[in-house]
Amino acid sequence: MRWYVANDVCEALDIHNSRDAVSRLDADERRMITMDTPGGPQKMNAVSLPGIYRLIFSSRKGTAKEYQRWVTHDVLPLVSQDSRHEIAVDSVGKQLDDLKDLLMQSGVVKPFVNPRYTFDNLMSRYIGAVPGNRPRDFYDAIGEWFGITVPYSSAINITVKEWLLEHVPMEVMTEFVVGIESKTIIRSQTGRWVSLNGVFGNTVEWERIKKEFGHKCAYCGKEHVALIPEHLVPQSVMAKVSPERVDLIENIVPACTDCNGAKGLIPLSDWYPKHPGYTKARLRKIQEHFRKYHLK
User: Boundaries of each Bro-N domain copy (predicted)?
Assistant: First the structure.
C-alpha cells in the first residue's frame, strides 16, 4: 500500500489542522513514516489513498467540493439502483483513478519514497544493528515483520531479494530497519520483533495479528465480520500498571464488535470462560499470542 505525507495532502486540500484531520481517520488509513530531512530522520504522519478520499470530504476546496457532490449526487443514488449497480462500480473506479492522477500530478501529494534507502542499504544497516546476523537473517526478519514466509526454493525462479521487493513495500522495510536502529522495535522474550509504538502506531502489526488469528474474532471465532483491536487487559487497568504496554501487540487481539462490547472492562479470566464462544483452543491461542510477543 502506498502512503502519502499527511501535511502535503492537507495542504493540497486546504485543510489547516492536519493532525486533527488525520486523527479522525481509521487505524488502517493512517500511520507514522520516517523520512530524511536536513535535520536528520523525522517521523511524519502519512495517509493511505482511502484516507485521502475521506479527507476530501472535510475539505472546502473547490475541486474537493466537486468530488463530494459527484459522490453524493451521482454515485450513491446510482449504487442504490440494483439494476445499474455494475455501471456504478465501473464509474466509481474510473472517477477515483482520475482523482488519484489529479492529486499526483499536482506535485503536492507525493507517495512516501525515500531514495536513500535501497534494499542493499537496508540489509547492511540491519546487519550492523543486529550483530551476528547475515543476509538470510535479514530476509527472515523482513518476512516475519510483514507476516509472510520467505521462499528459498529454486522453483520461484527469482532471487529472494527480488521476491521480497515484489511482496513487501520498501517503506515497510525502511521503517522496520529504522525502528531497530532507533530501538523502537525490539525483540520479545521469544525473539519476535515488537514495535514500542504499539499496534496503533503502525498497520503492519495489526494486519499480522488478524492474519495469525485467521481473520476471525479471537473470542468467538466469527469470520467475515469487521474486526477491531481489542485490549486483553483493559486500557484503564494497564495504564495504571504499565502505561507503555497498553497498545503493544502482546495486549491486542482481533475481536468482533459484539465481543469487544461485551467484554468491556471485565478481566479476561473472569469474562471469557462464561462467554458463549469460549473454547479451550481459542483461549490457548490467545495465551500463545501473549507469550509470543510479551516483552521481558
Answer: 1-83
Terminal Cα-to-Cα distance of the chain (whole angstroms): 32
Kindly calculate the radius of gyration of the chain based on its CA atoms and give it in whole angstroms: 21
- Residue 130 grid coordinates: 543486529
Contact 179, 198 (CB under 8 A): no
Where are the domains positioned within the chain?
4-105, 119-183, 195-293
Q: Indicate the SS3 state at residue 231.
A: strand
How far is Cα 39 from Cα 37, in angstroms, rounded to an integer? 5
Beta strands at 193-195 and 185-187: parallel, antiparallel or unpaired? antiparallel
Looking up cell 495532502, which residue turns up?
Answer: 9
96 versus 6: the higher-pLDDT residue is: 6
Each residue of 76-112: pLDDT tens digit? 665 555 444 444 444 545 555 555 555 555 444 444 4
Domain 195-293 indexed as CATH 1.10.30:
yes
Q: Could you say which DSSP state residue 132 is in? A: T
Q: Is the dihedral of CA 192, 249, 34, 5 positive or negative?
A: positive
Residue 195 confidence (pLDDT) = 93
Sheet strands (E) in 85-192: 185-187
Distance, CA of 204 to CA of 197 (rounded, Å) = 12
Facing residues of 173 across strands?
none
| Residues paired with 231 in a beta bridge | 252
Segment 130-148 shows an average pLDDT of 95
